[in-house]
Fold:
Amino acid sequence: MDIDIGIDKQDREAIAQGLSHLLADSYTLYLKTHNFHWNVTGPMFQTLHLMFEQHYVELADAVDVIAERIRSIGFPAPGTYKQFVALSSIEEEEGVPKATEMVRILVEGHEAVVRTARSIFPTADKASDEATADLLTQRIQLHEKTAWMLRSLLD
Structure:
């Protein structure tokens, strides 16, 4: 059945492509954060272990919301590691960095997600896609705040 939500197919496709990149970035950051949660050590162990858990739980919810938005505008959501690697601007992490390096890497990851979300905004705005714009605004706010809080641990 055709989709008739007031956004033409070409615009929906462009938005879905942007959201696919956001999904890939978010999932890659989720996986990296979960990895760091499992493997953090040192004097800040308890603080970082709990903080990273809060972050990956939030990211797990976020990837579902992003994927469902892609589906609701009529396109398949990427869902494989191969697709995520191809779409993500965030590199996978090799090895187990020290705790402060984990924090720095996660700051960079959250900032990358912000840049990706912000890059989609003009397309959603041009298409009057308020639902996607709202999703992007929420993601930008959360990732900017998370990056700030993580960055504060490095001062």
User: Anything to note?
Assistant: The mean pLDDT is 96.
